Fold each of these.
Amino acid sequence: MPETQRLVVVGNGMAGARFVEEILAKSGPEKFAVSMFGDEPQGNYNRILLSGVLSGTHDSKDIYINPLDWYERNGITLFAGVKAIGIDRQSKSVYASGGHLMPYDKLVLATGSLPFMPPISGLYTDDGALAPGVFAFRTLDDCTQMINHAANVRRAVVIGGGLLGLEAARGLMNRGLEVHVVHLAKHLMENQLDAESGGLLKETLEEMGVTFHLEKLTQRVTTGVTGDNHVNGVEFNDGTKLDCEMVVVSAGIRPNVDMAKLSGLNTRRGILVNDDLSCRNDPNIYAIGECIEHRSVTYGLVAPAWEQATILAGRLTMTDPHVRYEGSRTSTKLKVMGVELAVAGNVHADDERDEVVTYVEPSRGVYKKLIVRDGHITGAILLGDGTTAPRLLQAFDRDEQLPKDRAELLFPIMTESLADDIATLPDETQICNCNGVTKGAIVEAVNAGNRSYKSVSDATRAGSGCGSCKSQVEAVLEFAADGLIAEDPSAHYYVPSIPMGKTELIEAIKSQGLKSVSAVFNTLAGGREDPVSKIGLASLLKTIWDDEYDDERDARFINDRVHANIQKDGTFSVVPRIFGGITTPAELRRIADVAEKYNAGMVKITGGQRIDLLGIPKENLPHVWKELGMPSGHAYTKAFRTCKTCVGTDFCRFGLGDSTQLGIDIEKRFQGVEMPHKVKMAVSGCPRNCAEATVKDVGVIAIEGGKWEIYVGGAAGASVRKGDVLAVVDSPSEAIKVMGRFLQYYRENAKYLERTYGFVERIGIEPIRKLLMDETNAEPARLDEAMQSTVASYVDPWLEGLNPIHESQFLTKPVTSATVKKS
Amino acid sequence: MTSSPAKTTSTVDLGPVDQIPVGEGRVFMVGRIPVAIFRDRDDNLFATQSLCPHKGGPLADGITGDGQLQCPLHSFKFELTTGNPIGNDCKSLKTYAVDVNGENNIEITIERPRRNVT
């Protein structure tokens, strides 16, 4: 299909515009000539933020996603403010107001929904317009008119206590109005909440000053008989009345199927679509968003609409031609009048297998409920405290197996509490302490259109230093983007230039026998040699192939080319391995001599119980190593670093296990083993834990009874975390075996630059323990064997000092005799 | 092709290209000017100033690929041919014309202000 196809999209809202963005991203402009019809006269804006505009927290010009010039820049013909009226399916064209006729090859309907107007007398004037002072709350235009009207009135009645109605109520309250919400059901937001949380929400909102009238049916809107016929009150079915000068109707939405119906497409509540999102009775017409009915379900949230947009774009561009839409698990996180609310799935337990977990704290207006079936969430409510919402909604969306302790999902862990505070921080608060990036700078970058962690980080450098602020940067992003966060698929890639996760990438590398970094680029990245991806690939290939790895040195970071750590002045630091931190007077004397002879700028005892010689020029590294006569300490690389030990049993009066010997054995075994990130270890000889083994990547503590506890995932640097006990074993040799097994599992499964603390938290200690410690499975033996093979292929890299792999390996400036040829 | 009257152009042979390992960079003195010269996997050469304008990092120790150079100290990126910064607002790197000549030697062309030599 080389020629351009005519693609017409009816609807320029959140579904239609996202669909066109996806089409552009997936195919470029050549494949389709895109035309769009939008009822509203502007570009595409974020409808979710209309409540922000109404309450005055957002300016209307700040809520645009795609302004008009975006369409022009991307070669899209936009008919803004032109209403599509019908489809001539015979001649395949769309006709629209103003006499427009637009032929199509493919037509996509994204007509969205319309406000439901209940049968209330007096809502309309004789000519069919809403009576003066009566508003629906759906478009930017509605919003502007409401703001204008609100400036001159005292009391407003909002008909409908659903989400949109409550948002309208908040907006009007912010504008100084007395607000009454009239609702037909027994409690607020009955589609999202159960009775208890609905009641709690009502109390919280009442404290803010809203008056509620529940279980009331509005029968009539009354208007003044004199002057401009403005609204002056509402009457209910029980005969009571309420005076007011403004009425907002937000009694729900209905899919907008008018045009589809008129054009003979099959509709019920919504436009009926198949799993390929094509209409039931016309394969050239597709529909997405709030206007559709798929497998008897209609959706009123943005996430399913975006999912459908992505799927349809994948099919039409043929980039993902077989993908099907199989329905969405709906969950949402929002603020109702500033009260946090997250809702997922079915919030009513309706099966006797359902396990219901609730936590209620009426004084703070906090309500948390989980409905669990067979260990998976089928429904959840978090009201008044949304700190665990991201984790909980993720567990729901991915249908994850829940932890046995359900409380883990209801109560925050430390990093989440931090993120929760973000909203209240002043703009000048520094979020990224490496690069000095403030909250304000991140918010500005988000407002400038960066909607994923990666693009925010690229734009501001936030999070690009030590990375420990990542969760806070994400929290600022989430706060500033107001729910409009773009899923960044590259966040799941192992390296940015190859669109594969780690497992998939390993599979591709193994099955195609790719043994060098350049072979990976040639086969999997179209020959594009991305410098940022090189180091991660080198690490992975070494893990996969061991001594079969075709080691191209240019893929290594400078530290790994010269086996020393580069310093700010371009010199290097030399840290020889001192096994277990045990040295001798003779060794110390030799180190002192070398430091003096090579003029080390600083001699430092490191935190890992070793000695660091700093300020060594690259040219001197081979001499320093040779004269030290000690092996590399790997203080410069993403590998096992050091094993800190306490004094142990030889001298200490408390020692229970020989920690120094185990530390030495650990260093001898794991020295130089490449890892996704650095790995620090420690062994303590008794539970007093002088070696701080509980905050190491892997730590061991001797306990009474000749046993050893093994901790994994500890940290005490940019992040602080106490490790989890992986196992308690009976001997040092057993400890070494289990540690190696964990390390190999970490090597194979962690993302590049993911420390063990993040890794263990991501996978969860229970699944790790189950996999590694159940020796009836094949996996432990396989991991042990893989680690053994890595250990066996170890060669001290400092031997390259005697035998460089290239004549200029340790030269900054090759010795040349330059000759001037011409001048 | 003609140089401006205030400048003089010299072409200097810096010896065998093999002095630079494939894919890496090294510093060469061209007169008194240190220049970082990079060799890609297809034997194309690129030459830039030797220190990073950000914090003086040794650029020859950087990592390269796809026509880009990443400084080893703080990962600031630059385009090798133009010297332009990528994703940071550092000054552009000074670049020099460099090539492999018929004898497989590195040949660099630099301009410098003409001085009155007596």
Amino acid sequence: MKTVNFVRMTLPAKSVNEAYARVAAAALASQVDPTIEQMADIKTAVSEAVTNAIVHAYRGQEGGLVYITMRLMEDGSFIVSVRDRGCGIGDVRQAREPCFTTAPSEERSGMGFSIMEAFMDKLQVRSAPGRGTTVTMTKRLGR
Amino acid sequence: MNLKLLEEENVLHAVITGEIDHHNAVVLREKVDRQIAAMRPAGLVIDLSGVTFMDSSGLGFVMGRYRSMAGIGGQVTVKGATGRVETILQMSGAYRYVKLLDE
């Protein structure tokens, strides 16, 4: 399918960039006239994915990078992928279960993947321990 | 994100406005816990009516305060959540632990 528009960005894994990433995603999505709810869904899902990269993949260490690619497709869908070169996930199925978290002391609720799944139409997680994780999400936009 | 802490008859009100994400949940947690420790209130009311965005970090904040308050025998009440903020609280089952104040 044809890509109508895209944005590619690389951000340092700093928590202050969580807001930047979700606002950028909403700005691109806004080009195809989404509903307010769809915008909120995208902002929330992108915020979850980027937070995971910062908190879990890089475990708060400085120097890590988060790579984000966002595409608007011909059929009005929005595809976003969030990639890191962090620690990776050993068991993706377990990580996607509600309330599973490896960082309870940091008050992680373990709901990140569940929220991404609920708010987007499609969620794909690819990970290799020691090499990193790519989360790709699709949302159909329009009224 | 902005936080206002108000004391009313042994109940602490945390009125949050703006966006709650991982970045500012850390700040919220520190400030609210410090006040809980100093005041030891019987109840904590988290007012989310002015919150325009919240992800699972906000949920972590709410559940974390449930634990802080449970530690001193107090209760947590959430009020004013709308839209996706409310969706996240509902879908997580948070209302099994914290009370929802209907107005």
